Amino acid sequence: MATPFSSTTPVRSIIQPQQNPSKTLFSIRGLYYGGSSCVKCRSGSSSAHVYSWRSAASYVNLRNGGSRFSGKPIVERQLLPRRTGVVRAATIEEIEAEKSSIEKDVKNRMDKTIETVRSNFSSIRTGRSHPSMLDKIEVEYYGSPVSLKSIAQISTPDASSLLIQPYDKSSLKAIEKAIVSSDLGMTPNNDGDLIRLTLPQLTSERRKELSKIVAKQTEEGKVAIRNIRRDALKAYEKLEKEKKLSEDNVKDVSSDLQKLTDEYMKKIETIYKQKEKELLKV
Length: 282
Hints:
The protein has 282 residues and is α+β, with helices and mostly antiparallel strands. Helix content is 40%, strand content 26%. The protein is built from 4 helices and 10 strands. The chain has helices spanning 92-122, 172-181, 204-241, 247-280; strands at residues 23-37, 44-56, 59-70, 83-88, 138-141, 144-147, 152-158, 161-166, 189-190, 195-198. Strands 1-2-3-4 form a 4-stranded antiparallel β-sheet, with no helix packed on it. A 4-stranded antiparallel β-sheet has the order 7-8-10-9, with helices on one face. Strand 2 and strand 3 form a beta hairpin. Helix 1 packs parallel to helix 4 (247-280) and helix 3 runs antiparallel to helix 4.
């Protein structure tokens, strides 16, 4: 059972959507000196600029409330223009949806990688016949390559042979040619109605060759898992740059991602050991 990703801890940089009417979240007051001088006393005046940040739903409203002046009466003064702006901020639900989408994609891709490894292994014959041994065979049928199992029925009358009965007898020659061109190492016997394949006894040398092929396919599967992990990390880093996840959030999901990656690596290793045992069994 794959380890589920941990939920995202609320991010400080994200404002929780409010259902109530907007209200002031905070205000900033700054004093600035050296503004317009008082004509009467020739002394410098001070001005205080008040900013307020209001939030309603997932929108942030930043307002510059202009200037307030203090000190002695002022004859001249210059007011700052009143400014307002609206910034769209992501909601917690939106962030969770993005994170969940990444997690789902990771698991789907890793599951498909496992299935690909299994499929590749099943096409490598051991001591017993099995229809899946012909899964990788493609036949040129009416000008297009199609899988053998889509145009013929495959059965195993005994432990050392396979029977191929095409739905269209005109495809027998094409099927025979595809089998000869493959790396199965079997000679097809075409009697005009069906094709019989007899599995030759595996030699010690051939078993070792097949074992190397299996090891290579295993490593390719592991590389695919690592690439999926890399893509997910890039996606999380992108959310961090967009201020949707904090640095701590990214560390948490990265840790969970590594645990999931380790689980799938172990699955591939288990499948490999089982196949290797079959190949080397005399």
